[in-house]
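2024-03-11 09:14:02 DEBUG pipeline.ingest accepted 1 chain
2024-03-11 09:14:02 DEBUG pipeline.ingest length=329
2024-03-11 09:14:03 DEBUG pipeline.predict start
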Amino acid sequence: MKPGALTISLAVALALGGMLVGAMLGVTSTDPLRLLSAITSTDPSSNDVLLAWRVQRVVGAFLVGACLAMAGVIYQGAFRNPLAEPFLLGSSAGGALGAVFAILLPWPWLSAVGLPVMAFVGAWGATLLVLGISRAARIEDAAGMLLVGIALAALLGALRSAVTLVLADESVSLRALVSWTLGGLQSPTGTTLWTFAALTALCLVASLALARKLDILGFGEATAATMGVDVGRFLTLALTVAAFATGLAVAWGGVLAFVGLIVPHAVRWWIGERHAPLLLHSALVGGGFLAVFDGISRSVLAPSEIPLGLLTSLIGAPFFLFLLVRRYR
């Protein structure tokens, strides 16, 4: 379908519908009318605290899903690799390692820098490392680059576990930290939620600014260079934006696999390859997608939660295998 007002309207409807379903699910399910009453009520005594918390959680899930979907689109365009995504390239693992350092190291300057910044540094460093190793080894095919990313993700995951075991103490809940690394969505509130939303919007604006050159890069680096694109500089910029989006998602959502793979592919089959509409539609659909899955993770084994990363992996791993088989057949 050609992207336009109709597809945007459908994507917005999917996003709002996903958030509504996510807000209705939980330890105690609710209906849309009660949810609307709790949101719009001006009387604090009649405002349902549980629903108020749940709505903020759903918005947080939406923003995490949007960031991962945008990062997936950028990685796939920058590497010209339809199987690239933050988890498989090691970016999520790098972001998680940086975030664990921010949580566990008792350094005042590190606390001032904050968890999102450390997550970005880790994601960006891991992405550049995958690119550097691939170029040094003269790996040009998609499968080879993915193998580098998977190996690096395993190494960074082992380092994260070692750091956690060495540095965690009574002041930090080891169980909570392990749950977060499996995909434990945080619930940003107040100023934090608005900051997260603003940063996500900034990522979207920056991503859309990259869209035209990502389209050109799809013809190959040599062709892009003849069309006036400074490929090296552009790739550094594109990977920085993707790593920033990944760092935001990791900071508030932990390690969530395959969201950046499933959503861009589904949207690409729907509206085509052009990156500007692909980024916008993927952000909306990815946010709604993760809001629904977060609601499922809170309701299936209530009052316990299933780590969100387990659910995305259960869906994403078979989807990745399907794409891999389809590509090589």
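2024-03-11 09:14:41 DEBUG pipeline.report The longest helix spans residues 49-79.
2024-03-11 09:14:41 DEBUG pipeline.predict end
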